[in-house]
Each structure stands twice: as structure tokens, then as C-alpha cells.
Amino acid sequence: MTAFSNTTVKRLRSLRDKKARKEEGLFLAEGLRIIAEARDSGRLPEIIMFSPEGARHPLASEIIAATEAAGGDAVQTTPDILSKTSGKDNPQMLVAAYKQPATDLSSIDRTRAPLWFVAQALRDPGNIGTILRTGDAVGAGGLILVDDSADPYSVEAARASMGAIFTQQVAKAPWSDFLAWLRSGEGQLVGTSLNTDQDYLSVTYLPPTFLLIGNEQQGLPQSYEEACDVLVKIPMAGRADSLNAAIAAAVMAFQVTASWRAS
Amino acid sequence: MTAFSNTTVKRLRSLRDKKARKEEGLFLAEGLRIIAEARDSGRLPEIIMFSPEGARHPLASEIIAATEAAGGDAVQTTPDILSKTSGKDNPQMLVAAYKQPATDLSSIDRTRAPLWFVAQALRDPGNIGTILRTGDAVGAGGLILVDDSADPYSVEAARASMGAIFTQQVAKAPWSDFLAWLRSGEGQLVGTSLNTDQDYLSVTYLPPTFLLIGNEQQGLPQSYEEACDVLVKIPMAGRADSLNAAIAAAVMAFQVTASWRAS
């Protein structure tokens, strides 16, 4: 076991910054629950940092040993330093850095799942993580981030994903590349919009279904709506005419899979 | 129009703190969109603070004038001070303080809406705001916060509600008080749980339906589940067995209202 290492601490802490994540090709995950989820999905960290208390949990010590056996770094440190690394008042006893997987479209095998999320220019990393978590629950394959988005490998996104960052595939692409890729195979592109009267409950969804979610502020650009095979509306009863992006994604996803279960 | 007032700035800024909100009975809302939503719901602020740029928008200047006419304070300040008040890098041009409405159960008229949210010990103010926003979209009456919860009048909750803090009713109560109140009239209490095989799609929901949402970490305590008229399960396809609390609330709410539209 590596002794306390200032360099490692600094390196982990730097991963809170997007530029460092890009340069290192790593991202942070925190807490035993998520790190165990990663291991169950066949992923071990490159670096794991833990407090003496953190290492006492049998599952944690198993993962620490497996990380070292696989050539990774395992570093014991203090709760105080863990707290500074995770940026939380209530520190996790484990913080780990993982390799970022490839995020090009060619890494996506659309036959792997009947449902995929496609999100355009999402700004809020919490929404990205929440969509990944929903995707895991609903049996989706992953999330394709179109245009300039928040970083799915940020600490906030990984945290909100509750481990789904390890089970859902993530790809990034400009819209035109995504559209060319989509049309190179089968797939129904479904957009939610206010510019249609078609109720989301009355549509036959055909797998693989790609659910297109608009940006938090503006919704989908018109040309993106025009590229959809189906536009649907989630009827709104209230004064406002919008849902949170992750909420809209979930309402659509559960309706799509419910319609498949019912048929 | 009141001149620049240091006292007012300090007073508004203090409302970022829960203790001050409680003492003053006020809460903060930011940005023209939400402040206009409040006005459309018949609510004017006690205090409104704006930059010269913020006051130039016709709708903003109308609300500023209406606030003064109603005896409120209107204070022009700098974008820098607005930024410090709102705690955001990208400052809103308007920040306003509103009276907190009463949050006792007796203020809730259950016949006003067919659907209500009940949430137990929610920790994340963003989840509270998102549930309010969803409630507005789905035609719910409001949110009853059971046990010790995050503050629905925090800046984060008000922001995530996107104005629904002004259109949805909010009540707070200990569980036993809520249960007594619920049983004093009609209402179906529906809990989501892993401890049932009853699919959420196969249940007949009877208005007024009260959707009970568990805490982010533990879900519902067993005795709370036992008090429900119906327990339902949202089937999960993935590795994880849970949804974000606000997502679960939305999936349930849209299914309940969809079942009513279909019948």
C-alpha cells in the first residue's frame, strides 16, 4: 500500500476541474456504494484514496486490494483530506479516480438496448447524472450528448448518477454527426415538443427508440424537431409549460417502456 | 423609488440563511420569469431589488411600480450587489423577497385538486423545488412535507420550482398530524415501495390521491408503508433499485393522471 502521497492527493483534487479531467482522462467517484457498483460492473479505479475508517469495511478493503492487484494506486489519507478532495462537508470515506471510457458514437451498439436518451446542450451536470440513473432503472442503453453539454464526468454528474455512470454508455457528438449515425441504422427519433398536439400516450414507440431531450432553457431548436420521426406532447395542466429536463426524460422513458409492457 | 439602501441589501442577503428566513417570514425569488409568474398568481414582493438594466424591461418596471404602489420597497442597486445577493456568478437582474405563506395543514383544501404530493424527510431542496414544478405541470394541488425536511423556501428550492412555489400549496407536518388530517376526510394514500409486487400501471387511483414519496436515502419507513391504502412498485430494469425522489414522484404523478385521462 502506497504511503501518504501529496502528489496523489493533488492529482485527485485536480479532477474536480474539467480541464484536468480532460488531460488526465480520469474522473472522480465517491463513496462505497458507487465504487462497489463500479466493481460489480467490472470497473476498478486507477487510484483509490481512503481513510482508515473507510478501509475497515470488508467490501472497501476488497476493492482496495483488487485495485492494487490490478496495478492501481491505493492511498490511505485522513478524513480531512478526503473531505477537501470531494468538496463535501460530509466526507465520503472513499474517493476513487476512474478512466473515462471512449465517448465517440462508434462505441454505441444500438442493438444492446431498446431505449436510448439523446440530450441537446444540457447545462446542468445534475440533470445528466439523473438521466443516467433513470436510464439504468428503465433499462436504457445510455445517453448521447449532442452539441455543447455539461461534462458527464464531472463530480456532480457522477454523484447524481448514483453509479449509473458505470452502467450506462455515454457518447458525445455534434448534432449532424449524431443524425448521420442514427440514420445509418434503425431507430425511431422521438422529440417532446409544445409544437404538436400528439399526446405522448397515444404513440406506438418502435425500438430502438431514441428520446430527444431539449436544453433546459430553450427546448429543442426547430430544425431538431423537424428531424424527429415522431413529435409528442406531454400535456401540462398548470400555469407553466415546461418540466425539468430530467423529469421530462423520465416521464417519456417510463411511458415508452410501459407501452411495451402493455402490448 | 427608494435610494440605494445598505440595510435592505443586507436584509435580502440574510434570507439565504434558514434562520433569517424563519425570523423574517420572507423568502427570496430571483429573475424576471419567476417574479412575473408570482405576479400572475397575484403575489407581489415585500422588497424588490433591481439593476438599472433589470428595470428597463417593461414587465419588470410594471412589477416594480406595482410593488411600490402596494407599499413594498423597491431598491435600485448594482449588478455586482445583485450577484452577491443571489449567490450566482451569472446574476439575475431582479431579486425579490416574498412573504412565506402559512404552512399548516389546515391551509390545505384537498378538494381543490385531484392529486397531492406528500414527501417524507426530503433532504435536497432541489428535489422539493422540482416536485413543486412537476406538481404545477401535472395539475397537483401542492406538496405536504412530512417530518424534518429541507426548507421549501430556500433559494435552491424556489429556483428549482421555476415559479411553482407561488402556484402550489406547501404544508409541513409531523407524520402523525398528517395522518390524522388525511383520515379526517377523503383521500387515497399511495406509497411507492420495493416491498410489493403491485405494478403502478395496474392500480385504480381514486382522487384525491396523495402520493407518498420517501426520503432520498432510506425510502419510506415500514410503518409509513403500512399506513398507505395502496402500495405500488415501479418496476426497475437496471442494476440499481431506486430512482431520484423527484423522478419517482413525477413518474407516479404522470401515470396517475394518465390513467384518469384514459378512463
TrEMBL record, chains A, B:
<dbReference type="InterPro" id="IPR013123">
    <property type="entry name" value="SpoU_subst-bd"/>
</dbReference>
<feature type="domain" description="RNA 2-O ribose methyltransferase substrate binding">
    <location>
        <begin position="28"/>
        <end position="104"/>
    </location>
</feature>
<dbReference type="Pfam" id="PF22435">
    <property type="entry name" value="MRM3-like_sub_bind"/>
</dbReference>
<dbReference type="InterPro" id="IPR029028">
    <property type="entry name" value="Alpha/beta_knot_MTases"/>
</dbReference>
<dbReference type="InterPro" id="IPR051259">
    <property type="entry name" value="rRNA_Methyltransferase"/>
</dbReference>
<dbReference type="GO" id="GO:0008168">
    <property type="term" value="F:methyltransferase activity"/>
</dbReference>
<dbReference type="InterPro" id="IPR029026">
    <property type="entry name" value="tRNA_m1G_MTases_N"/>
</dbReference>
<dbReference type="Pfam" id="PF00588">
    <property type="entry name" value="SpoU_methylase"/>
</dbReference>
<dbReference type="GO" id="GO:0032259">
    <property type="term" value="P:methylation"/>
</dbReference>
<dbReference type="InterPro" id="IPR001537">
    <property type="entry name" value="SpoU_MeTrfase"/>
</dbReference>
<keyword id="KW-0808">Transferase</keyword>
<comment type="similarity">
    <text>Belongs to the class IV-like SAM-binding methyltransferase superfamily. RNA methyltransferase TrmH family.</text>
</comment>
<protein>
    <submittedName>
        <fullName>RNA methyltransferase</fullName>
    </submittedName>
</protein>
<keyword id="KW-0489">Methyltransferase</keyword>
<dbReference type="InterPro" id="IPR029064">
    <property type="entry name" value="Ribosomal_eL30-like_sf"/>
</dbReference>
<dbReference type="InterPro" id="IPR053888">
    <property type="entry name" value="MRM3-like_sub_bind"/>
</dbReference>
